Amino acid sequence: MMHELSICQALLIRVAEIAAVNGAAAVERVTIEIGALAGVDPALLTAAFAVMRAGSCAATAALRIESTGVRIECLACGTESPAAPNRLICTQCGGYRTRVVAGEDLRLRDVELRLAGLPELAQLPPVPEPSGLLRRRARASGPGATA
Amino acid sequence: MCNTCGCAMKPADTVTIDVLQGLLAANDRAAAHNREHFDRHRVLVVNLMSSPGAGKTALLEATIVALRERYRIAVIEGDLETDNDAARIRAHGVPALQITTGSACHLDAQLVHAALHELPLAGLDLLFIENVGNLVCPAGFDLGQHRNVTLLSVTEGDDKPAKYPVIFRASDLVVLSKTDLLDVLDDFDPARAATALRALGGGVPMIHTAARRAPALGEWLHWLECELRARRAAPLRAPRVDAMMEA
After folding, report:
1. What are the backbone angles phi and psi of residue A100, rounded to the nearest 5°?
2. Are B22 and A87 in contact (CB < 8 Å)?
């Protein structure tokens, strides 16, 4: 098992929590950010998502992956530059004491939910036809009634 | 449009919820909880990673023989199957707990947490977690360890740090293992390995070890003892109450 399956499982659990808290009917789209140094393969994660979403609230959801490149800051000369994942050396001075400022992200950015609308009238319990007396009482106890 | 009365109310709507949260937040919470356990017991925890066959268990066996009179050591072993590695460790008289992951390619913080219920930390000085042999997956999962150590055996390629930058970058120390074989190998240059490691920035140190025929463990044992001293000198953190994780 590749670790993309574990990551996909964690993603789907989090998405289900967000959908439940917001009372969503379904998840339309999930957007995540994967840095080139996160150690996660976007294609493998996409394949895992296509299988593992089945039966969940995200069963028909699309997965959007935004890949972010690596950027480093040189601790010697302060230059910030793009870098390859296995060559994190300052392009300006050649210094190898650098700090990665972008490219390590593995984040859930946002979730697009389809919210359940209010229940349609046909699904509400039928309103009983009030008698004359009940109608007056109902009016007296209804909203805005005066004693 | 509503089907019942024709009003303009939409039966459903979409909304985008901003999250901006790490995908491994649940694992990271469990790892932080493990770390609190370790800190409360003042035990140094070292996560050992490497490709299969780089000599993690052999290094642990030699380390136990060298240090068991002075430090109380325990080991958590991670493998897909078998109790073999834990049995090797137990044969040296220290407690070892085997986690078999089935088909999972790495340990995670929850697996380690479950193991801690069966491995008393009281009185321990040093706990090794031997991760599943794999240079890819273990790198992304914090277990609550204090230090990551990655082994690179000289029977592998000296360009491994360039091929697997994520795991070597995540290391606090890289151990070049089986260096007693360098004499009979003509394709591994320790200097090239050091250059590939240095190209990952951060200045991760690399030391040499040999664990079997002619043990050479000086630098490794020195590093461990420095870390043990630093751990003992670290201020004891007050335990944080976290009802969710105590469950």
Report:
1. -80, 120
2. no
Q: Please list every residue in chain A whose beta carbon sits closer than 8 Å to the beta carbon of residue B195.
A: none
Burial zone of B209 (CB within 10 Å; 0-12 exposed, 13-18 middle, 19+ buried): buried
CB A113 within 8 A of CB B17: yes
Q: What residues contact residue A8 under an 8 Å CB cut-off, 6+ apart? A: A45, A48, A49, A52
What domains are there in chain A, each with its CATH number? 3-116 (3.30.2320.80)
**C-alpha distances out from residue A145 to A128, A135, A138, A139, B245, Å:** 21, 13, 9, 7, 52
Assess whether pLDDT exceeds 70 at residue B75. yes
More confident: B113 or A127? B113
Confidence band for B87, pLDDT divided at 50, 70 and 90: very high
**Eight-class DSSP state of B179:** G
pLDDT at residue A120, as a whole number: 47
Residue of A86, A104, A109 to mutate for B, most B C-beta atoms under 10 A: A86
Among A24-28, A117-121, B30-34, B243-247, which stretch is predicted with the lowest mean pLDDT?
B243-247
- Encoding tokens for residue B156? 């592998």
In chain B, what residues touch A98 (CB-CB under 8 Å)?
Answer: 201-202
Domain boundaries, chain B: 26-231
User: A35-93 pLDDT, tens per residue?
Assistant: 999 999 999 999 999 999 999 999 999 999 999 999 999 999 999 999 999 999 999 99
* A7/B12 Cβ within 8 A: no
Sort B112 into a burial class: Cβ within 10 Å, 0-12 / 13-18 / 19+: buried
Name residue, tokens 């697997």: B164
Under CATH, which number does the domain B26-231 receive? 3.40.50.300
The beta-carbon neighbor of B11 closest among A10, A111, A120 is A120
Amino acid identity of residue A123, one-letter, is Q
Secondary structure class of B210 (helix, strand, coil): strand
Does residue A123 have a pLDDT over 90? no
